[in-house]
Write a structure and sequence with these properties.
The chain is of the alpha/beta class. It has two domains: 113 residues, NAD(P)-binding Rossmann-like Domain (Rossmann fold, 3-Layer(aba) Sandwich), CATH 3.40.50.720; 176 residues, NAD(P)-binding Rossmann-like Domain (Rossmann fold, 3-Layer(aba) Sandwich), CATH 3.40.50. The strands form two sheets. A seven-stranded parallel sheet has the order 8-7-6-9-10-11-12, sandwiched between helices. Strands 2-1-3-4-5 form a five-stranded parallel sheet, with helices on both faces. The longest helix is centred in the last third of the chain and has 19 residues.
Length: 324
């Protein structure tokens, strides 16, 4: 009896080396990014493609899915999957997976570090020293975390991990989400405006997507107030970046720490010019340890699916359910 042929997988853009090596080893891999004629490759292989491996910045819409009529699974590298139209996938019976849990601690660590760097002006102090200003005068006093209320927008896995870490700093913690969570001791606010009014740090950890575009707008920033600090480690699309730049310039809020932007890797010049903004190049999960774990989970989802065991980490919208 002949062995069945390996499933054919499509890679649109380069991914973590471990993913690409495993896909080439365990499956029949087609790469649009290295094809001399990507359109010809897609036309020739599209009907045979059963799996799609994508990174966080790779858009996958219904039109692409329709060109892959045999597609069964989309394995997303990252916990956020807003660039994948998961509803369109569900309507076609296509499973979507992501990489939760393995990056929770790394992103939570980075979020707290970014908050401290923003409040205590750590990058600015480093630049001050390197420029030789310290012998002339001490670095100016900074704001503090002491006595603050941190409002978390999105108390999911990462939001909870951030809250647990901040508990050690003695700050008050509040949150807003779709519903209150009975197993946490933090104050729940039923609206984002209510949370912004109650907090003086707003930590953004909510999912991206069409429903949350520019959720943090001028009204929310004004409610945060002149001592307010915005930290975003979720998706840049959640923040009205023009309104944020204006709020930082005009003193509507004190400072902002951003690891994500709406049009990555492009950062608005208005934000880059501001000294009261700490800006990072989307490095929340960017450690060797965590990226390797994320890569392994992408591979494991594909291997589990094509071996008949089902997906390991299907997203909420996916049509697959255990025992179905």
């Amino acid at each position: 009896m002949t062995e069945p042929s390996p499933a054919e997988i499509l890679l649109i853009r380069p991914m973590h080396n471990a993913v690409m090596e495993a896909l080439a080893r365990d499956f029949t891999l087609h790469r649009l990014d290295t094809a001399p004629d990507p359109e010809a490759l897609l036309a020739a292989t599209g009907p045979r493609i059963r799996g799609l491996a994508v990174g966080a910045q790779t858009p996958v819409d219904g039109a692409l899915m329709d060109r892959l009529p045999g597609l069964e699974i989309i394995a997303n590298f990252g916990v956020g999957y807003d660039t994948v139209d998961a509803r369109a996938a569900a309507s076609r019976g296509i499973v979507v997976t992501n990489t939760p849990d393995v990056l929770t601690d790394e992103v939570a660590d980075l979020a707290v570090g970014l908050l401290l760097a923003t409040l205590r002006r750590i990058p600015q102090a480093d630049r001050y020293l390197r420029a030789g200003h310290w012998p002339k005068a001490p670095f100016p006093l900074s704001a503090s975390l002491r006595g603050r209320t941190v409002g978390i927008l999105g108390l999911g896995r990462i939001g909870r991990a951030i809250a647990a870490r901040l508990g050690g700093f003695g700050v008050r913690i509040a949150y807003h989400g779709r519903r209150p969570q009975a197993d946490v001791p933090y104050a729940y606010h039923s609206t984002l405006m209510g949370l912004a009014e109650a907090a003086d740090v707003l930590m953004v950890v909510a999912p991206g997507g069409a429903d949350t575009v520019k959720l943090i707008d001028a009204r929310v920033l004004a409610a945060l107030g002149p001592q307010g600090v915005l930290v975003n480690v979720a998706r840049g699309s959640l923040v009205d970046e023009a309104a944020l730049a204006e709020a930082l310039r005009g003193g509507t809020i004190l400072a902002a720490g951003l690891d994500v932007f709406a049009d990555e890797p492009h950062v608005p010049a208005d934000l880059a010019a501001l000294d009261n903004a700490v800006l990072l190049p989307h490095v929340g999960s960017a450690s060797h340890h965590t990226r390797a774990a994320m890569a392994q989970l992408v591979i494991d989802n594909l291997v589990a699916w094509f071996s008949g065991r089902g997906p390991l980490t299907p997203v909420e919208e996916t049509p697959w359910r255990a025992g179905a």
